[in-house]
Amino acid sequence: MTQQEPVIEPVPFGNHFDYPADRPLTPYERERRELLARYSRFARDRECVITSYLIRPAGATDHLVVELFDTTNSQLVVTCATLQRDAGGAGVWYAIGTLADLTRFLPSPTRNILVLPAEPDTDLDGLCAIRSITPVWPVEGTDTFTSHQEQTRRSEPLFYPNGEPSL
Question: How far apart are CA 58 and CA 7, in angstroms?
Answer without folding.
Answer: 7
